[in-house]
Amino acid sequence: MNPFRYFLFFSLLLVGFVSFGAKVDSLDIPSAVMQKTLRAAVVLPNSYAKSKAAYPVLYLLHGGGGRFSDWLSSTPDKMLLHNLADQYNLIIVTPEGENLSGYLDSPFQKDSQFETYLTKEVLAKIDQTYRTIRDRKGRVITGLSMGGHGALYLATRHPDLYCAAGSMSGALDLNPTHWRITPEFAKQIAPRFERILGPLGKTPDPYADHSVVFMADKMKANGLKLIIDCGVDDFLIEPNRELHRRLVYNQTPHDYTEHPGGHTWDYWENSLPYHVLFFHKVLKTNGVTVAQ
Questions:
Q1: pLDDT per residue as tens digits for the range 151-199
Q2: pTM for the model
Q3: Alpha carbon distances (Å) from 89 to 58, 239, 247
Q4: Which run of H or of E encompasses 125?
Q5: Residue 164, strand partner residues
Q6: Is the CB of residue 228 less than 8 Å from the CB of residue 244?
Q7: Taking the C-alpha atoms of 203, 219, 34 and 65 in order, what is their torsion angle to the nearest 10 degrees?
Q8: CA torsion sign, 140 to 67 to 177 to 264?
Q9: In whole angstroms, what is the distance from residue 176 CA to residue 197 CA?
Q10: What's the burial of 253, exposed, middle or buried (CB within 10 Å: 0-12/13-18/19+)?
């Protein structure tokens, strides 16, 4: 075989292997409530194209300084989501949450209404575009940092939409004075929090009203399956421990773990497979997994 044919043979072989992996779509999702269009990534397992089945969906949220593509571009293993989608026959959606939106509807900013956007506009677009299980029993949500807060916040407030929720290194108390951060960092992020929730120290307190650390009783009442973890060196460890204490106190079943590590992509890359396995078991119990 001459060198050119040798190169062509292995190039075609490589393309063949790649084609068997999960596919990633980039989807524009307009928001009527915010009067703008935002983007999401959708990871479809390889089996999706060859099947007529409806698939369960994992909504995977990014952190406060990130964007929708982070989970595909920032993990050390760039195939992490592809492999998890294929392993569990699961659609993974990474929607846009912008910079420090909290994934909530801001009382002050009409262009930051992410609770409405995610629970109504994003879910509707995904269900209209793909073969999904259009029921809470086939829908789960998790995220990192601000996205961890967002996942628990949205699932707690909308238990009709999700059967399980998780948080990795979650900013579970939106008051940054309760975090292990320097005064300089606190001063740096204060304007971004004030944009969506106003200044600290107001009564009633919008920071407390929107923080999931104070929603333990709602979590118990909803009966959601919960998985929460945080690194022992993470600056957000104390709010995570506080929510855990509250859930233990009111006897809410949940999976809580502290791992070595800090607020890093190495930590989240290690954490996400545990969340997806947890969700897979919940979905299997619900009878909505797609056969391998």
A1: 999 999 999 999 999 999 999 999 988 899 988 888 888 888 898 998 8
A2: 0.91
A3: 11, 33, 31
A4: helix 123-129
A5: 140, 225
A6: yes
A7: 80
A8: positive
A9: 12
A10: exposed
